[in-house]
Protein backbone atom coordinates (compact mmCIF):
# COMPACT_ATOMS: atom_id res chain seq x y z
CA UNK A 1 0.00 0.00 0.00
CA UNK A 2 1.18 3.53 -0.75
CA UNK A 3 2.12 5.80 2.15
CA UNK A 4 -0.45 8.52 2.98
CA UNK A 5 1.84 11.10 1.33
CA UNK A 6 2.24 9.02 -1.83
CA UNK A 7 -1.51 8.40 -1.94
CA UNK A 8 -2.22 12.13 -1.63
CA UNK A 9 0.26 12.86 -4.43
CA UNK A 10 -1.43 10.34 -6.74
CA UNK A 11 -5.00 11.43 -5.97
CA UNK A 12 -4.04 15.10 -6.41
CA UNK A 13 -3.32 14.39 -10.07
CA UNK A 14 -6.71 12.85 -10.81
CA UNK A 15 -9.81 14.54 -12.17
CA UNK A 16 -12.65 12.37 -10.88
CA UNK A 17 -16.22 12.42 -12.17
CA UNK A 18 -19.06 10.70 -10.32
CA UNK A 19 -21.32 8.37 -12.27
CA UNK A 20 -23.59 7.20 -9.46
CA UNK A 21 -23.97 7.64 -5.69
CA UNK A 22 -26.18 5.45 -3.52
CA UNK A 23 -27.14 3.95 -0.17
CA UNK A 24 -28.10 0.29 -0.15
CA UNK A 25 -29.80 -1.92 2.46
CA UNK A 26 -29.45 -5.55 1.42
CA UNK A 27 -32.15 -8.18 1.76
CA UNK A 28 -31.24 -11.29 3.84
CA UNK A 29 -30.84 -13.36 0.66
CA UNK A 30 -28.69 -10.78 -1.19
CA UNK A 31 -25.85 -12.27 -3.21
CA UNK A 32 -23.95 -11.27 -6.33
CA UNK A 33 -22.43 -14.15 -8.29
CA UNK A 34 -18.81 -13.84 -9.48
CA UNK A 35 -18.53 -11.10 -12.07
CA UNK A 36 -15.89 -8.96 -13.72
CA UNK A 37 -16.07 -5.38 -12.46
CA UNK A 38 -16.73 -2.86 -15.24
CA UNK A 39 -16.54 0.48 -13.36
CA UNK A 40 -14.44 1.97 -10.60
CA UNK A 41 -16.41 2.12 -7.37
CA UNK A 42 -15.95 2.81 -3.68
CA UNK A 43 -18.02 0.98 -1.04
CA UNK A 44 -18.14 1.72 2.71
CA UNK A 45 -19.84 -0.89 4.89
CA UNK A 46 -21.85 0.74 7.69
CA UNK A 47 -23.95 -2.14 9.12
CA UNK A 48 -24.29 -5.90 9.06
CA UNK A 49 -21.90 -8.61 7.96
CA UNK A 50 -21.00 -10.34 4.76
CA UNK A 51 -18.21 -11.73 2.66
CA UNK A 52 -16.60 -10.33 -0.48
CA UNK A 53 -14.29 -12.40 -2.67
CA UNK A 54 -11.88 -10.42 -4.85
CA UNK A 55 -9.77 -12.32 -7.39
CA UNK A 56 -10.14 -15.48 -5.32
CA UNK A 57 -9.28 -13.91 -1.93
CA UNK A 58 -12.00 -13.73 0.75
CA UNK A 59 -12.51 -10.53 2.77
CA UNK A 60 -14.90 -9.78 5.64
CA UNK A 61 -17.51 -7.14 4.82
CA UNK A 62 -18.42 -5.40 8.08
CA UNK A 63 -18.62 -1.88 9.54
CA UNK A 64 -15.33 -0.05 9.17
CA UNK A 65 -14.35 -1.88 6.00
CA UNK A 66 -13.74 0.14 2.87
CA UNK A 67 -13.56 -1.43 -0.59
CA UNK A 68 -12.17 0.00 -3.80
CA UNK A 69 -13.23 -2.01 -6.84
CA UNK A 70 -11.45 -1.48 -10.16
CA UNK A 71 -12.32 -2.69 -13.67
CA UNK A 72 -11.17 -6.24 -14.38
CA UNK A 73 -11.45 -7.47 -10.78
CA UNK A 74 -13.35 -10.75 -10.40
CA UNK A 75 -15.71 -10.11 -7.50
CA UNK A 76 -18.34 -12.14 -5.62
CA UNK A 77 -20.40 -10.52 -2.84
CA UNK A 78 -22.92 -11.86 -0.34
CA UNK A 79 -24.49 -10.88 2.97
CA UNK A 80 -24.98 -12.72 6.23
CA UNK A 81 -28.74 -13.47 6.18
CA UNK A 82 -29.06 -12.80 9.92
CA UNK A 83 -27.21 -9.46 9.73
CA UNK A 84 -27.88 -8.02 6.26
CA UNK A 85 -25.35 -5.59 4.92
CA UNK A 86 -25.91 -1.86 4.59
CA UNK A 87 -23.45 0.28 2.67
CA UNK A 88 -22.83 3.54 0.83
CA UNK A 89 -21.15 3.54 -2.56
CA UNK A 90 -20.19 5.72 -5.45
CA UNK A 91 -19.21 4.79 -8.99
CA UNK A 92 -16.81 7.00 -10.91
CA UNK A 93 -14.41 7.43 -13.75
CA UNK A 94 -11.31 9.59 -13.91
CA UNK A 95 -8.40 10.87 -15.91
CA UNK A 96 -4.96 11.87 -14.69
CA UNK A 97 -4.27 15.52 -15.54
CA UNK A 98 -1.55 17.61 -13.93
CA UNK A 99 0.90 20.42 -14.55
CA UNK A 100 4.60 19.53 -14.57
CA UNK A 101 7.23 22.16 -15.34
CA UNK A 102 4.58 24.37 -16.97
CA UNK A 103 3.43 21.54 -19.24
CA UNK A 104 0.03 19.86 -18.92
CA UNK A 105 0.21 16.06 -18.85
CA UNK A 106 -2.88 13.89 -19.33
CA UNK A 107 -3.25 10.12 -19.03
CA UNK A 108 -6.31 7.90 -19.25
CA UNK A 109 -7.37 5.60 -16.41
CA UNK A 110 -5.96 2.67 -18.43
CA UNK A 111 -2.54 4.35 -18.42
CA UNK A 112 -2.74 5.46 -14.77
CA UNK A 113 -4.10 2.76 -12.41
CA UNK A 114 -6.22 4.00 -9.51
CA UNK A 115 -4.04 4.10 -6.34
CA UNK A 116 -6.57 2.22 -4.16
CA UNK A 117 -7.65 -1.37 -4.87
CA UNK A 118 -9.12 -4.01 -2.60
CA UNK A 119 -10.14 -3.86 1.06
CA UNK A 120 -8.99 -1.36 3.71
CA UNK A 121 -9.88 -0.77 7.34
CA UNK A 122 -10.88 2.74 8.43
CA UNK A 123 -11.04 4.05 12.00
CA UNK A 124 -12.87 7.34 11.40
CA UNK A 125 -15.93 5.75 9.80
CA UNK A 126 -18.44 8.31 11.21
CA UNK A 127 -16.82 11.20 9.30
CA UNK A 128 -16.70 9.17 6.08
CA UNK A 129 -20.35 8.17 6.56
CA UNK A 130 -21.28 11.84 7.01
CA UNK A 131 -19.53 12.75 3.75
CA UNK A 132 -21.24 9.87 1.96
CA UNK A 133 -24.61 11.09 3.27
CA UNK A 134 -23.92 14.57 1.92
CA UNK A 135 -22.82 13.19 -1.46
CA UNK A 136 -25.98 11.09 -1.61
CA UNK A 137 -28.14 14.16 -0.92
CA UNK A 138 -26.34 16.25 -3.54
CA UNK A 139 -26.52 13.46 -6.11
CA UNK A 140 -30.30 13.83 -6.12
CA UNK A 141 -30.00 17.51 -7.03
CA UNK A 142 -28.91 19.23 -10.21
CA UNK A 143 -27.21 22.49 -11.16
CA UNK A 144 -23.69 23.79 -11.75
CA UNK A 145 -23.19 24.97 -8.16
CA UNK A 146 -24.41 21.61 -6.86
CA UNK A 147 -21.94 19.85 -9.16
CA UNK A 148 -19.16 22.01 -7.77
CA UNK A 149 -20.18 21.15 -4.19
CA UNK A 150 -20.08 17.46 -5.09
CA UNK A 151 -16.52 17.86 -6.35
CA UNK A 152 -15.50 19.59 -3.12
CA UNK A 153 -17.12 16.86 -1.00
CA UNK A 154 -15.42 14.16 -3.05
CA UNK A 155 -12.02 15.76 -2.42
CA UNK A 156 -12.86 16.05 1.27
CA UNK A 157 -13.81 12.37 1.30
CA UNK A 158 -10.43 11.30 -0.06
CA UNK A 159 -8.59 13.73 2.23
CA UNK A 160 -10.42 12.27 5.26
CA UNK A 161 -9.51 8.78 4.08
CA UNK A 162 -5.82 9.72 3.75
CA UNK A 163 -5.86 11.29 7.22
CA UNK A 164 -7.38 8.08 8.57
CA UNK A 165 -4.59 6.00 7.01
CA UNK A 166 -2.01 8.42 8.38
CA UNK A 167 -3.46 8.22 11.89
CA UNK A 168 -3.31 4.42 11.71
CA UNK A 169 0.30 4.57 10.57
CA UNK A 170 1.43 6.73 13.47
CA UNK A 171 -0.56 4.78 16.09
CA UNK A 172 1.92 3.50 18.64
CA UNK A 173 4.55 6.04 17.59
CA UNK A 174 3.98 8.74 20.20
CA UNK A 175 6.33 11.32 18.68
CA UNK A 176 4.64 11.02 15.29
CA UNK A 177 1.22 11.11 16.97
CA UNK A 178 2.09 14.36 18.74
CA UNK A 179 3.38 15.88 15.50
CA UNK A 180 0.18 14.80 13.75
CA UNK A 181 -1.96 16.78 16.19
CA UNK A 182 0.47 19.70 16.05
CA UNK A 183 0.11 19.83 12.25
CA UNK A 184 -3.65 19.51 12.58
CA UNK A 185 -3.82 22.50 14.93
CA UNK A 186 -1.74 24.62 12.54
CA UNK A 187 -4.32 24.04 9.78
CA UNK A 188 -7.52 23.94 11.88
CA UNK A 189 -6.77 26.48 14.64
CA UNK A 190 -9.95 28.43 13.85
CA UNK A 191 -12.15 25.39 14.61
CA UNK A 192 -13.52 24.51 18.09
CA UNK A 193 -10.77 22.02 18.95
CA UNK A 194 -10.82 20.29 22.34
CA UNK A 195 -8.17 18.53 24.36
CA UNK A 196 -10.29 15.40 24.22
CA UNK A 197 -10.53 15.39 20.42
CA UNK A 198 -6.79 15.99 20.01
CA UNK A 199 -5.92 13.19 22.44
CA UNK A 200 -8.29 10.88 20.58
CA UNK A 201 -6.60 11.77 17.29
CA UNK A 202 -3.23 10.84 18.82
CA UNK A 203 -4.64 7.60 20.20
CA UNK A 204 -3.67 8.53 23.78
CA UNK A 205 -5.43 9.27 27.04
CA UNK A 206 -5.94 12.97 27.76
CA UNK A 207 -3.45 13.06 30.62
CA UNK A 208 -0.78 11.06 28.76
CA UNK A 209 -1.24 13.16 25.63
CA UNK A 210 -0.96 16.43 27.58
CA UNK A 211 2.26 15.33 29.31
CA UNK A 212 3.89 14.13 26.09
CA UNK A 213 2.85 17.19 24.10
CA UNK A 214 4.39 19.54 26.66
CA UNK A 215 7.52 17.40 26.80
CA UNK A 216 8.04 17.45 23.01
CA UNK A 217 6.66 20.89 22.08
CA UNK A 218 7.27 22.96 25.22
CA UNK A 219 3.65 24.10 25.58
CA UNK A 220 0.53 22.36 26.75
CA UNK A 221 -1.78 21.53 23.80
CA UNK A 222 -4.24 24.30 24.66
CA UNK A 223 -1.46 26.86 25.21
CA UNK A 224 0.01 25.90 21.83
CA UNK A 225 -3.39 26.35 20.18
CA UNK A 226 -3.83 29.70 21.93
CA UNK A 227 -0.47 30.95 20.66
CA UNK A 228 -1.33 29.87 17.11
CA UNK A 229 -4.55 31.85 17.30
CA UNK A 230 -2.92 34.91 18.82
CA UNK A 231 -0.12 34.87 16.23
CA UNK A 232 -2.68 34.80 13.43
CA UNK A 233 -4.66 37.58 15.13
CA UNK A 234 -1.48 39.69 15.26
CA UNK A 235 -1.13 39.35 11.47
CA UNK A 236 -4.73 40.40 10.92
CA UNK A 237 -4.41 43.36 13.30
CA UNK A 238 -1.31 44.57 11.49
CA UNK A 239 -2.59 44.10 7.96
CA UNK A 240 -6.27 44.99 8.14
CA UNK A 241 -8.85 47.25 9.66
CA UNK A 242 -11.36 44.46 10.30
CA UNK A 243 -13.56 44.80 13.34
CA UNK A 244 -12.33 43.05 16.45
CA UNK A 245 -15.33 40.71 16.44
CA UNK A 246 -14.47 39.52 12.92
CA UNK A 247 -10.83 38.92 13.80
CA UNK A 248 -11.82 37.02 16.95
CA UNK A 249 -14.19 34.83 14.94
CA UNK A 250 -11.61 34.14 12.21
CA UNK A 251 -9.12 32.74 14.75
CA UNK A 252 -11.58 30.54 16.63
CA UNK A 253 -13.20 32.74 19.32
CA UNK A 254 -16.94 33.44 19.31
CA UNK A 255 -16.67 35.98 22.15
CA UNK A 256 -14.60 39.06 21.27
CA UNK A 257 -14.24 40.05 24.94
CA UNK A 258 -12.85 36.64 25.86
CA UNK A 259 -10.53 36.88 22.86
CA UNK A 260 -9.31 40.30 24.08
CA UNK A 261 -8.52 38.88 27.54
CA UNK A 262 -6.61 35.95 26.03
CA UNK A 263 -4.73 38.24 23.63
CA UNK A 264 -3.66 40.59 26.44
CA UNK A 265 -2.65 37.66 28.65
CA UNK A 266 -0.33 36.36 25.91
CA UNK A 267 1.05 39.63 24.53
CA UNK A 268 0.73 42.02 27.47
CA UNK A 269 -1.33 44.52 25.46
CA UNK A 270 -4.90 44.69 24.21
CA UNK A 271 -5.69 43.94 20.55
CA UNK A 272 -6.55 47.60 19.92
CA UNK A 273 -3.27 48.84 21.42
CA UNK A 274 -1.36 46.22 19.46
CA UNK A 275 -3.03 47.37 16.22
CA UNK A 276 -2.25 51.04 16.92
CA UNK A 277 1.41 50.25 17.51
CA UNK A 278 2.03 47.70 14.75
CA UNK A 279 -0.47 48.31 11.96
CA UNK A 280 1.23 48.58 8.58
CA UNK A 281 0.30 51.77 6.77
CA UNK A 282 -0.42 51.21 3.06
CA UNK A 283 -0.51 53.66 0.16
CA UNK A 284 -4.29 53.52 0.26
CA UNK A 285 -4.25 54.62 3.90
CA UNK A 286 -2.05 57.60 3.05
CA UNK A 287 -4.48 58.67 0.37
Proportion of beta-strand residues: 25-35%
- How many distinct beta strands? 10
- Number of separate domains: 2
CATH class division of the largest domain? Mainly Beta
Model regions low in confidence, pLDDT < 50 over at least 5 residues = 282-287
Question: What helical percentage do the residues reach?
Answer: 40-55%
Keywords: DNA-binding, Transcription, Transcription regulation
Protein name: AraC family transcriptional regulator
InterPro entries: AraC-bd, Homeodomain-like_sf, HTH-like, HTH_AraC, HTH_AraC-typ_CS, RmlC-like_jellyroll, Tscrpt_reg_AraC-type_HTH
Organism: Paenibacillus agricola
Structural descriptors:
disordered C terminus, 287 residues, single chain, 10 strands, 4-stranded antiparallel sheet, 11 helices, elongated, Arc Repressor Mutant, subunit A, Jelly Rolls, alpha+beta, 6-stranded antiparallel sheet
Amino acid sequence: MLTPGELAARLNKLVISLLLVGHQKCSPEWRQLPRAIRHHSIWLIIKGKGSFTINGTHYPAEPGKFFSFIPGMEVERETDPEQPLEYYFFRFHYTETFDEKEQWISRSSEESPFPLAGMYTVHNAPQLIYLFEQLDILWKRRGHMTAMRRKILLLEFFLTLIQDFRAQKVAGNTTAAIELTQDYMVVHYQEPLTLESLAQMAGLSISHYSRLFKKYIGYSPIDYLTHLRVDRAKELLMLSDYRLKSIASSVGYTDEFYFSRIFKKVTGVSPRDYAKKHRIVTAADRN
